Amino acid sequence: MGLSSSNNAILFDNCQSLQKLIVTLQVNWDLITDGNNGFSLQLNCYPQTNPQSTYRDKPLFWMQYVIAVENNSVQWGIQYWSTDKGFGFSPADNYSSFGAVSSNRVLRGSVMRIALDTDSNGNVTSATFSITNPDFSKVSSHKFEFPSDCLCAIYGFQLNLVGPPSGTHSCTFTSGGGILTYQALDTLAVQSTNTCGGSQTLTGETSNAVYGDVKPASGKDVSQTVLHQTQ
């Protein structure tokens, strides 16, 4: 396990725009942080460079979809970052609650998921955030539909289990582990070298999470383990 925190494997399909990406965390070990300060599951994506994804005619360099667990609630968040400061995109009700948790803990058996719907050109048209409780008796979710002037494609991504988006921006898991699963209409594979162009920004949030190898090496449905690193 050589990858950790905000530096997970980057998955892509030979620089093609990814279609209908779904990322899932199956929690197999209670997610508990030191001080119960919370954490976030982040789908950090890289905008298509051919042609370049833009918003308000400005190039984008990072697209972020987040499930945040803090303030005893489960929140959804979206941020599109532009190369020109002040020209990115964030919804007006960003980081609103769509579920509740006790002491900022997500228990074993829970399922956290972020699903991106796309149009025929690969542009992301909506993002659905959800969390299912351990006995599968309740699913809490929120779906955000992007406005017509903010339809952008992605070519690659990495998933990170890190600190909350506010406060410390960092967390230390005292318990935690599970399986990360990635599904798409495309054949996903681990990128060894950035041949797609553009920057591949790392999120500023950190944690003591460590990631296993992506298996199988490529496919439309691949997975990896995530565990908390003990001292």
Keywords:
231 residues, mainly beta, globular, Jelly Rolls, 0% helix, 15 strands
Can you tell me the CATH topology?
Jelly Rolls
Shape: globular
- Second rung of CATH, namely the architecture: Sandwich
The domain count comes to 1
Strand tally is 15
Question: What's this, in brief?
Answer:
This protein is mainly beta. The chain is built from no helices and 15 strands. The chain has a single domain (3-228), classed as Sandwich (Jelly Rolls).
Q: Explain this structure to me?
A:
The protein is mainly β. The protein has a single domain, classed as Jelly Rolls. It is 0% helix and 53% strand. The protein is built from no helices and 15 strands. The chain has a six-stranded antiparallel β-barrel with strand order 2-12-10-9-3-13. Strand 14 and strand 15 form a beta hairpin. The two termini are 15 Å apart.
Blueprint (SSEs and pairs):
Layout: E1 3-4, E2 11-12, E3 22-33, E4 39-47, E5 54-55, E6 58-70, E7 73-82, E8 96-100, E9 111-118, E10 123-132, E11 139-145, E12 152-162, E13 173-190, E14 209-211, E15 218-228
Antiparallel strand pairs: 1-14, 2-12, 2-13, 3-9, 3-13, 4-6, 4-12, 5-6, 6-7, 7-8, 9-10, 10-11, 10-12, 13-15, 14-15
